[in-house]
Structures are given as structure tokens and as C-alpha cells.
Design a protein that fits this description.
Structural class of chain B: mainly alpha
CATH superfamily of the largest domain in chain B: RNA polymerase sigma factor, region 2, helix turn helix motif
Number of strands of chain B: 0
Shape of chain B: elongated
Largest sheet of chain B: none
Low-confidence stretches of chain B: 1-7, 13-18, 117-123
Low-confidence stretches of chain A: none
Number of domains of chain B: 2
CATH class of the largest domain in chain B: Mainly Alpha
Radius of gyration of chain B: 20 Å
Number of helices of chain B: 9
Helix content of chain A: 55-70%
Largest interface: A-B, 32 and 43 residues
Structural class of chain A: mainly alpha
Number of helices of chain A: 7
Oligomer: heterodimer
Mean pLDDT of chain B: 82
Number of strands of chain A: 0
Distance between the termini of chain A: 122 Å
Distance between the termini of chain B: 73 Å
Largest sheet of chain A: none
Chain lengths: ~150, ~200
């Protein structure tokens, strides 16, 4: 181990050997025992760490009450909002692009189903049959005797 | 005749004193999504301290910290449905919101130089300890100023890993940087603090 490597470990994990990576711990400790610069470095970092532990943070009296009592908007998400959120998601729209695609296909599918079940007075086969029936009747009633060829 | 609450959200939105110690963040967030204010209160009580401490370590001022913390929990209420439990822990998500708000704040109003909580507290201490207390206080003040003068990414990385107890991976996710960049920031911050303390000593 070099001093540079040891410094890197101290920089990353601090002065407590318990925080050092297990795989490097024994190597670090033996390096430390034989290198005075490493010991100086560790001592400096130990000072920094111990002072950091003592850095005060204020108690914030009244903050909890302030956060708890802040006015929160009513959560009145209705059906329409849920549908819109499903259609146009706020996050990862790219992955859920199939949501609006499915929605766009609904009128098409609806039209096909409607067209399949209801003729709306334009049934081709029935009307055709009736049309030819009428035609034959008309032809049978025609008087061809007076026709001059 | 009273009706028994049927679901977790109902329980939390109807009971005055929820026993929330065994309820997970995920269950509480589900209740918040349904409009459960007691669940919101339980989450505030659970996460307020860590969020306010993180914001304070980034901003350095009590008033700003309180504003940011309040905004974090307002966003929790408003965007509860956006939290994906399979992607991150709630505390990571909240710290990320706090981090983004703090960074926006710092970029808008300028960077932290010193913290505002270093009044001399050793005035009434015994006289034999006064000297050592003074020295200790001056070292604390020095280090606090040194932390205040660090770039925001180094300060944030140091705070998340050293004080908030996040792993490097979680801290990197909060800061939206790579683990390598985070480790580099921590290393530079610690080196800088060490140098400042050693030089002044």
C-alpha cells in the first residue's frame, strides 16, 4: 500500500478503522504501524471527525407545529383527474406512451363493434335480396305482347 | 353507533393518535394519497428531524431551513402519488426534494459562508475548563466556517454520508450524480477540511 492509497481511504471512509473496507483493513493497519506520515494523516483526520461530530444543529422549536399546522390543499381527486393522470402521466411519459395510444384506439374499436352489430338500415344482403325479388315481380307483370320488335 | 375503520388509510384518517411505530412509510404514504392527514402527521414526526438537519447543514440559517423543511412536507402531501417505493426509500425521496430545494435556494440567494448558531455557550462554565472550552469552541467555529466555504456539492456529499448516514449509492442518487463523482466530492471536502484545520492549528 502507498501513502496515496491510504490517503484515499482516509478521505473516503474517515478515521475510524471500522468504516474502512474489510478487504483493505488489515493492510491499512500494517501500513499505519510502519509509516509515520500515515499516522499523522490519521491523527489529523481523527481531529476533523471528532470536531464534526460536535458541530451543533439548532433544535428548531416550533418547526414541527408549523409543518403540522400548515394548510394542506384538499385532496379531491375525482374520476376525471384519475383518468387524465393515467392518460398523460407526469413521470416517465415515454414508457407509458401506450396509454394515450390505447385511448386513441377506443373510438376505432367502438366503431367496428357498432358496425358489426347494427346495420343502421343498410344491410346489403337483405336489401339486395328484396331488391331482386321486387325486380322479378315487376318483370313478371310486364306485358310484352304489345312490344314491337 | 360507530363504525370500525376498514383500511389503513381509514384508520389513519380517523384516529387521533395513530400508533405509527410499526406502520411502514409505504402504508403511511398510501394513506396520504387517500387524503389521510394523520398519516401525514406521522410522516412529519418521523422525518422532520433528518430533513431539517440536512437543510440546515446545507443552508446554515435557521429561518431558511424552516422554510425549506415546510416546503418539503408540503410537496410530500401534494406529490405523494409520485413516490415509487420500488425505486427509492421515502427518506431518500424526501432528501432529494430537500436537496433540490436547497440547491435552488442557494443559487438564487447566494452561498452559505457561516452558520448562525455559534453563540458563546461557555460563559458560565467552570474557570479551569474555560480555556479548553474556548479552544474547543474556536475549533468548532473554524471547522464550521470551513464547511460553510466548501462548494455546495462537497458540503452536500459530506452531510449526506457523514451525518445523515446514507450509503454512497443513496447519496449519489439524492444528488443525481454518479457514485464516483460523489466519492470524489467527499474526498476533496475532507482533504480541504483537514488542510484548513491543520494550517490554522
Amino acid at each position: 500500500m502507498t501513502l496515496k492509497e491510504f490517503t484515499r481511504i482516509i478521505d473516503l471512509y474517515g478515521s475510524e478503522s471500522a468504516r474502512w473496507p474489510k478487504s483493505l483493513r488489515s493492510e491499512c493497519e500494517s501500513f499505519l504501524a510502519n509509516n509515520i506520515e500515515a499516522r499523522t494523516l490519521l491523527n489529523q483526520q481523527w481531529q476533523v471527525d471528532s470536531i464534526m461530530e460536535q458541530l451543533p444543529v439548532p433544535g428548531f422549536p416550533g418547526l414541527e407545529a408549523r409543518v403540522l399546522n400548515q394548510s394542506l390543499p384538499e385532496r379531491n381527486r375525482g374520476f376525471f383527474e384519475d383518468v387524465m393522470n393515467w392518460l398523460i402521466p407526469d413521470e416517465s411519459f415515454g414508457k407509458q406512451i401506450w396509454h394515450p395510444a390505447i385511448a386513441a384506439c377506443i373510438p376505432l374499436v367502438f366503431g367496428i363493434v357498432l358496425g358489426n352489430y347494427f346495420s343502421f338500415g343498410i344491410g346489403i344482403e337483405d336489401d339486395g335480396f328484396q331488391y331482386w325479388g321486387d325486380e322479378l315481380t315487376m318483370l313478371s307483370l310486364t306485358d310484352y305482347t304489345e312490344t314491337n320488335f | 353507533m360507530t363504525r370500525e375503520p376498514q383500511s389503513i388509510s381509514e384508520t389513519l384518517s380517523t384516529s387521533n393518535e395513530p400508533s405509527n411505530t410499526e406502520i411502514t412509510d409505504e402504508e403511511l404514504m398510501q394513506a396520504v394519497c387517500m387524503g389521510g392527514r394523520s398519516a401525514y402527521q406521522a410522516l412529519v414526526k418521523r422525518h422532520l428531524k433528518s430533513i431539517s438537519h440536512y437543510a440546515y447543514r446545507l443552508l446554515g440559517y435557521q429561518k431558511d431551513t424552516e422554510d425549506i423543511t415546510q416546503e418539503v412536507f408540503l410537496r410530500l402531501w401534494n406529490n405523494a402519488q409520485k413516490w415509487k417505493p420500488e425505486k427509492s426509500k421515502l427518506t431518500t425521496w424526501l432528501h432529494r426534494i430537500a436537496h433540490n430545494l436547497c440547491i435552488d435556494y442557494l443559487r438564487k440567494y447566494g452561498r452559505m459562508q457561516t452558520q448562525d448558531s455559534f453563540d458563546d455557550e461557555a460563559d458560565d462554565s467552570p474557570s479551569e475548563n474555560k480555556e479548553s472550552m474556548d479552544e474547543k469552541n474556536s475549533q468548532i467555529k473554524l471547522l464550521s466556517e470551513a464547511i460553510g466555504s466548501l462548494p455546495e456539492n462537497q458540503r452536500s456529499a459530506l452531510s449526506l454520508c457523514h451525518y445523515q448516514g446514507f450509503s454512497n449509492k443513496e447519496a449519489a442518487a439524492i444528488m443525481n450524480i454518479s457514485v464516483k463523482a460523489l466519492e470524489s466530492a467527499i474526498a476533496r471536502a475532507k482533504r480541504s477540511l483537514r488542510e484548513k484545520l491543520t494550517t490554522t492549528s
